[in-house]
C-alpha cells in the first residue's frame, strides 16, 4: 500500500463566480475583459473619500438565483460586512462581502457523472479586488478594472474524497452557472476561479486534519493536479511523523520533481517526506504547490458590519418566484438522459452543449425515440455545424425537418441509406422538409425485382470482381455495389444489393 493510500483525502471547494451583470457591484462602471488598465474605474470602486456604494440589483438577483438553485435556505434579511486587509490591488483597504448573514446556507448539488450529492456551507455576494501584474524587472503594476466586480462565492462542505469527484463537481457547477445564465464561466478570463482546501486523515478516521488552501488554479487540470499533489505531500508528512500546517499555497505548474530541488527548498526536518513525494509522483509529472502564507482566521480580517449599505429584505414570495422559474439543472438532466438509455458520454455531451440537448429534447417531444434523437443530433446535426462553422445556438435545420426525416426512415417508406444519402443532404442545402425534397427530386425506392435485376447485370459485367470475391477478397464487393448504385441512380438499398450478391456467391 502506497503512502497516499494509507490516508484519506478530504477536500472542500471555494468558487468565485463573476456574475455577468452589466456593471460592477457597487458602482456604474461597466464590466470588461482585456480593456486597457485602469479605464473601467470611478471614485466609488477606487474607494476615494466621500463616496458611497450603491448595490447592483441585477448582481444580487443572480446570486439569489444560485442560492435557490442549490436548494439553500435564504434568510428573510441579509446584509454586508467589511473584510479589512491591506494589499496593493485593494484600493479601499477593505472588501465588502457577507460573513454573518450570507445570501444562502446549506443546500446540495447532484453531480453529473457520479450522481453523488455535494453539500454546501453557503453562497455569498462580494466585490472582487484588482489585479497585480508582476514585471520582469522586479516591479509590479496594478490594474483596478476588476476592482468592484460582483462575485458569488460558493463554499462547499468538505465532501470530496477523490480527485474524480472534484473534477465532476467543477464540470457540474460550471454547467449550472451557464444554465442559470449568471456567469460566463470562462476560466481563461478569470471570471470563474476554483480554490481547493485539502486535508488528509488516517483511513477510517472521522477527525479532520489541518487543511491547506490552494490558489492560483486556472484550469480543471490544474485543480486536479494540485489536489493530487497535496494528497501525496500531506500523506508523506504524516507518515514521517510531521503535521501539515494550516496555510495557503500556490500552484507552480512548471516545476518538475527533483529531490535536489526539495533539499534546497524545504527545511531539513521535512526533506525526507518531500523526497518521498517526488518519488511517488507519476513519470512525466509537472507541477507542485508552494507555500504562500499562513492561513488567516476570521479575526485577522477585523470584520465589521458595512455601515454604508442598508439591510436587504428577501421576501419568501421572491424566493418562491425564483424557484418556480428555474430551468432543469445539469445533474437531473444528465440523469434523465441516462435513464432514457443514453451512455454516460452521450448524456454529458448533451448537458455540456445545452443547445444540442435542447434540440434532442425537441425531437423527443415530437415522438422521436430518445436514442434516435441523440444519434441524429450528434451525428447529422453535428456534421452540419462542423462543416458550416456554427455553434449549437445557430442550428440551421428546424427540428421539425428531422422529425419528418425520422418518420420516413421509421415507416420504411424509403430505405434508410437512401434517406441519409440523398434526402438529407438536400434538406440541408435547399432548406426544404424531407417529404418536399422527395417530391421535388422524384426520389423513390427501387423495388426488389429491379434491385435483383440490376445486381445480376453488374455481376455479369464485372467478371474480375466476381473472381476476386470468390477468392475471398471482400473489397471487390464494392465494384459490384457501385455499379448497381450507378444504374439505379443511388436509389437501391445497399442491404438488398448485398443480399443478392450473397445469393449469387452460393
Short synopsis of the structure:
The chain is built from 17 helices and 16 strands. It has helices at 57-69, 163-180, 220-239, 259-265, 271-280, 316-324, 330-339, 344-352, 354-365, 370-388, 399-410, 416-430, 434-441, 448-461, 463-470, 477-487, 494-505; strands spanning 7-18, 77-78, 81-84, 94-97, 104-105, 108-110, 117-127, 131-134, 140-143, 150-156, 192-202, 212-215, 247-252, 288-294, 304-305, 312-313.
Overall description:
This protein is an alpha+beta fold. It has 3 domains: 4-305, no CATH class; 328-432, no CATH class; 448-505, Orthogonal Bundle (Arc Repressor Mutant, subunit A), CATH 1.10.10.410. Helix content is 41%, strand content 17%. It has 17 helices and 16 strands. It has helices spanning 57-69, 163-180, 220-239, 259-265, 271-280, 316-324, 330-339, 344-352, 354-365, 370-388, 399-410, 416-430, 434-441, 448-461, 463-470, 477-487, 494-505; strands spanning 7-18, 77-78, 81-84, 94-97, 104-105, 108-110, 117-127, 131-134, 140-143, 150-156, 192-202, 212-215, 247-252, 288-294, 304-305, 312-313. The strands form 4 sheets. Strands 1, 5, 6, 7, 10, 11, 12, 13 and 14 form a 9-stranded mixed β-sheet that branches. A 3-stranded antiparallel β-sheet has the order 4-3-15, with no helix packed on it. Helix 2 (163-180) packs antiparallel against helix 3, helix 11 (399-410) packs antiparallel against helix 12 and helix 14 packs across helix 17. It is elongated, with a radius of gyration of 31 Å. The model has no long low-confidence stretch (mean pLDDT 91).
Amino acid at each position: 500500500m502506497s503512502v497516499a493510500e494509507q490516508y484519506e483525502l478530504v477536500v472542500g471547494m471555494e468558487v468565485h463566480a463573476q456574475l455577468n451583470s452589466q456593471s460592477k457591484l457597487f458602482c456604474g462602471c461597466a464590466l470588461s475583459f482585456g480593456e486597457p488598465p485602469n479605464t473601467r474605474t470611478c471614485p466609488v470602486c477606487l474607494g476615494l473619500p466621500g463616496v458611497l456604494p450603491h448595490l447592483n440589483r441585477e448582481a444580487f438577483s443572480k446570486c439569489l438565483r444560485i442560492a435557490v438553485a442549490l436548494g439553500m435556505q435564504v434568510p428573510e434579511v441579509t446584509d454586508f460586512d467589511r473584510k479589512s486587509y491591506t494589499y496593493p490591488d485593494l484600493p479601499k483597504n477593505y472588501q465588502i462581502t457577507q460573513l454573518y448573514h450570507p445570501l444562502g446556507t446549506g443546500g446540495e448539488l447532484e453531480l453529473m457523472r457520479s450522481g453523488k450529492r455535494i453539500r454546501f456551507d453557503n453562497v455569498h455576494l462580494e466585490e472582487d479586488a484588482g489585479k497585480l501584474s508582476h514585471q520582469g524587472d522586479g516591479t509590479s503594476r496594478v490594474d483596478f478594472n476588476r476592482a468592484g466586480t460582483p462575485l458569488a462565492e460558493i463554499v462547499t462542505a468538505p465532501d470530496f474524497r477523490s480527485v474524480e469527484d472534484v473534477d465532476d463537481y467543477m464540470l457540474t457547477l460550471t454547467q449550472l452557472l451557464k444554465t442559470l445564465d449568471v456567469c460566463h464561466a470562462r476560466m481563461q478570463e478569470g471570471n470563474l476561479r476554483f480554490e481547493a482546501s485539502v486535508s488528509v486523515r488516517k483511513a477510517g478516521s472521522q477527525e479532520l486534519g489541518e487543511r491547506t488552501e490552494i490558489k492560483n488554479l486556472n484550469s480543471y487540470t490544474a485543480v486536479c493536479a494540485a489536489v493530487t499533489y497535496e494528497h501525496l505531500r500531506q500523506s508523506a508528512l504524516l507518515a514521517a511523523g510531521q503535521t501539515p500546517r494550516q496555510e495557503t499555497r500556490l500552484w507552480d505548474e512548471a516545476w518538475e520533481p527533483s529531490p535536489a530541488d526539495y533539499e534546497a527548498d524545504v527545511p531539513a526536518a521535512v526533506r525526507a517526506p518531500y523526497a518521498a513525494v517526488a518519488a511517488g509522483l507519476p513519470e512525466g509529472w509537472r507541477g507542485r504547490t508552494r507555500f504562500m502564507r499562513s492561513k488567516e482566521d476570521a479575526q485577522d480580517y477585523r470584520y465589521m458590519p458595512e455601515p454604508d449599505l442598508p439591510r436587504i429584505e428577501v421576501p419568501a414570495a421572491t424566493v418562491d418566484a425564483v424557484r418556480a422559474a428555474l430551468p432543469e439543472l445539469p445533474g437531473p438532466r444528465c440523469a434523465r438522459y441516462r435513464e432514457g438509455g443514453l451512455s454516460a458520454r452521450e448524456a454529458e455531451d448533451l448537458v455540456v452543449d445545452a443547445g444540442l440537448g435542447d434540440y434532442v429534447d425537441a425531437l423527443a417531444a415530437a415522438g422521436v425515440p430518445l436514442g434516435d434523437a441523440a444519434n441524429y443530433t450528434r451525428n447529422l446535426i453535428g456534421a452540419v455545424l462542423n462543416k458550416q462553422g456554427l455553434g449549437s445556438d445557430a442550428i440551421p435545420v428546424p427540428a421539425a425537418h428531422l422529425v419528418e426525416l425520422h418518420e420516413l426512415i421509421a415507416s420504411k417508406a424509403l430505405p434508410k441509406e437512401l434517406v441519409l444519402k440523398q434526402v438529407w443532404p438536400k434538406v440541408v442545402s435547399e432548406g426544404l422538409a424531407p417529404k418536399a425534397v422527395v417530391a421535388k427530386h422524384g426520389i423513390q425506392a427501387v423495388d426488389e425485382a429491379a434491385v435483383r435485376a440490376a445486381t445480376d447485370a453488374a455481376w455479369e459485367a464485372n467478371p474480375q470482381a466476381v473472381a476476386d470475391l470468390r477468392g475471398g477478397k471482400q473489397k471487390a464487393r464494392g465494384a459490384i455495389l457501385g455499379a448497381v448504385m450507378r444504374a439505379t441512380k443511388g436509389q437501391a438499398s445497399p442491404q438488398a444489393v448485398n443480399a443478392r450478391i450473397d445469393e449469387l456467391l452460393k
